[in-house]
Structure formats: structure tokens, C-alpha cells
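Write out the bound-state structure for 1-hydroxynaphthalene-2-carboxylic acid.
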Amino acid sequence: MRRGEKKTFQSTPELDRYHERIAAYHLAPLWQRLGSLLTPEPRVASKPQLWHYDGLRELLLESAGLISAEEAERRVLILENPGLPGTSAITETLFAGLQLVMPGEIAPSHRHSPAALRFILEGEGAYTAVNGEKLPMHPGDFIVTPSWCWHDHGHHGSGPFVWLDVLDLPQVRNTGAIFFEEYPDLRYPESRPPEDSFYRYGVNMVPVEHRTSGTKSPLLSYPYERTRKALENLKQHSPIDPCHGLRMEFIDPTTGRAAIPTISTFIQLLPTSFESDDYRSTDGTVFCVVEGTGTIKFGSGSNHIEFRYAPRDIFAVPCWQFHRFAADEETVLFSASDQATQTQLGLWREQRGDYAAI
Ligand code: 1HN
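---
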């Protein structure tokens, strides 16, 4: 047998008996397992999937008549990848869900070791408070809740308020290091002025006494108003990347690293009529459409799947899955992935090119 050929073992009664005997000692033969442990390229269980906001919204609003935010702790519909049933995961490493808060409701204060982000989809008048700092929420805003920070949510406005939650929960769960604690009161005391973190860390300065923790971004909110202007400026002056259009990453301004140590977050603009080149990377990604309509296509030939997208739709792009965009209208996409983790571990890879040619 030559190197590189698939190894197959001639089962013999002796070998079968040996396998049975060692199983009693909690031992297993690597020679039977190696082929599925080490594949030439990534093989993941998660599948490409898109959730249309319209249908989702209706189902989410229905839950408000059945359970309160306080009773539920968090009134969230989990976006569970069809390839990962029962895992509460949208990709191998990320949790995603849609959260609803109704006027007057409070989602009680708690903290947990998984880090979270909010990407706001709909409504006016709600806030989230992180370690006693009240952060107003508006559609398109991206807000960070670092690991082990107290957080509660409230809503003083009218009408439903909805956002996308993304957590590194499956990643943290794999390590075992899950911790969760409820605050004794509904709300954690308001102990800082609103937008305190923005004025301390978001204006290209830091207080002189600041010492970076390296793992918790002190900047908590990235309002869409500024994000959108940044994209608009790029549009005037930057070349369009053939795979990403115009794409920027949200960072912790005190370190230059990802806004959440385990989750990379991005905003990107695809110009009207833009058709991207095929692209794949090893990070599993959750996309949320902010503006525009178009198509996301996965694979080719008999494995080809495509979804039409519209504002507030959410879709999952699995690890190492070729995909490309066709934007009918100018499109803005928010995305979150485990690229930050993979890059820190020296694992992250990407491939650009024509799927058909590979
Ligand atoms: C959580 O604490 C929130 O704080 C949202 O809003 C979603 C999903 C799983 C576990 C905890 C929140 C969550 C969550």
C-alpha cells in the first residue's frame, strides 16, 4: 500500500476479539479511528441555513403572550443549525438566538462565563446594562457583553424590541468552563454614567491609569450611526475586495484585537449588483443582513444551495464551505465567527477562488 491511499483493515476474528477485550479497559484502537479523526480537509456537521426574519418575528412575538421576559430569564428563540440538532449551536462554536423584550419588561441581571454580543434588529427605547453601565440600543448597533459581566435588559419604549444574541457558548462548553450566577435583585445598580465606556475608550484616548486586561474589551458599544459612516467613507475611497466587498472588523481599541477574544465581528458592504468570488475559511460564521437584498449561494452542482436574503435575515456559513454573494441592492452585512479563536491558535485558513476550478 502506498502512502496517501486509504487504509482498510482486513478484519480477523483475532483482531475483532482484541478490540472487544481492550474496550473493557476503556481503550480504543487508533488504527480504526484515525481516518475519521484526521480528514484531509475539514468535515463539519453544521449546514448552510438561512432564517427569514418575517416568519421568525411572528413566532417570536407569539411567545410574548405565553411567557414573560422575567419568567423566561431570557425570552430567546434559539437558531439551531439543522446539522447540529439538540446542541443549541448555529455553528460548531457559536450560539445564536433572537431575543424579544416587550415594553416595561426587565430581563433580570445575571452573569456567565460565555461572552455574548447583541446585534440590534428592531425597536426603539430599550437598553442593556453591562456591569452597571446603561447602553442605549438602536437598530444596527453592536454591543459586547464580555465574559462574567453582570447584565440586564430593559425597555422604556413602545412596541416589541428584538435583537440577535451570539455567544461563544459551544466553545466554552467544550472546555467545560461554564459558570452562571443570578444577581439577587432584578437589576444591577446603575453605577456608571450612560456611555461611560465610550468616552473613556472610544475616542482614541485611554485614562492614564488604564491597564488592559487583554481579555475584556472596555469599549462595549459600536453604534450603527458611526459604523455606517465608516462604510460610506470606504465606499468613496477603497478598492472593493472580490470576496468581501468592503469589510471592516470591530476591535477592542485598547489592544487592536477582536472585540471579543473568542469571537471576531465584522461589518461589510456589498455594492449594488456586486457578485463576489467564491470564498471559504475555517471559521464558522453567522451573518445578519442589515440592509439590502440579494442571494447567498453555497457549493455548486448537485450540492448547490441558494437562499435569497432581505433585511434582518440571519444565515449560517459553516467552516470551509464555499459561498458567494450576489447583491441585488447595496447590502450591509454584520457577521460573527470564531476566527479570533482560530487565529490565536494558529489554525485559521482561508481560500479564495473559483469553486468549479477546484
Ligand atoms: C443570555 O444570558 C442572554 O443575557 C442571551 O441576554 C442569550 C443564550 C444562552 C445563554 C445565556 C442575555 C443567552 C444567554
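---
The helical segments are 13-23, 30-37, 53-64, 69-72, 169-175, 196-201, 224-237, 339-344.
The CA atoms of residues 278 and 354 lie 5 Å apart.
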